[in-house]
Amino acid sequence: MKTISTIVLWCCLLATTTLWAQRQQVDRVIGMVGNNIILQSDLEAQLKMMESQSQGTDLPPDARGFIFDQLLSNALMLAEAERDSMVVEDSEVQLQLDQRVSQILIYMGGDEDKFYQFYQMTPAEMKDFMRDQMRDQIMQQKMQQQIMSTITITPKEVKEYRWLRELLVIL
């Protein structure tokens, strides 16, 4: 009898723990391109940033989809850059970080205390925190430049595009 009640107790404990764990979803993968994953938290962070920049105006109803498309495009650029063995030097990353943090500090009147109050980290900690994101951003920019450098548009193609566009408007 004691073993049966012990087994029942363990089953109840396991079921309770499983239900609690299911309710405590921390994050989830919403997309994957190559080795790059896109998390729900990435989408939500971009959405919050877009809302803060909108200064009180309502976001378009498709904002979430637009952001997801951007995240997928960025991941695709990174995957392609990795496949092409594109290299971003540490000095490039450091230069960009220095410039961005310096711009923020100039905006804050050079006051590192204000910087700390706003970001809850020192400028050096911010640079360390942003290093991987900056490397990815530079790599995406390089990949985009590489792709764009191979595209040529002739005047004939422009005329054809305009003609097709006018035709579609008429229909």
General description of the model:
The protein is mainly alpha-helical. It contains seven helices and two strands; from the N terminus they run αββαααααα. It has a two-stranded antiparallel sheet. A hairpin with a 2-residue loop joins strand 1 and strand 2. It is extended, with a radius of gyration of 25 Å.
Which descriptors apply to this entry?
mainly alpha; 74% helix; two-stranded antiparallel ribbon; extended; 5% strand; 7 helices; 171 residues; single chain
Compact overview of the structure:
The protein has 171 residues and is mostly helical. It is 74% helix and 5% strand. The chain is extended, with a radius of gyration of 25 Å.
Largest sheet: 2 strands, antiparallel
Rg calculated over all Cα atoms = 25 Å
Structural class: mainly alpha
| Strand order within the widest beta sheet | 1-2
Q: What proportion of the residues is helical, as a percent range?
A: over 70%
- What is the global morphology? extended
How large is the count of helical segments?
A: 7
The span between the termini is 81 Å
Residue fraction in strands: 5-15%
**Strands, total number:** 2
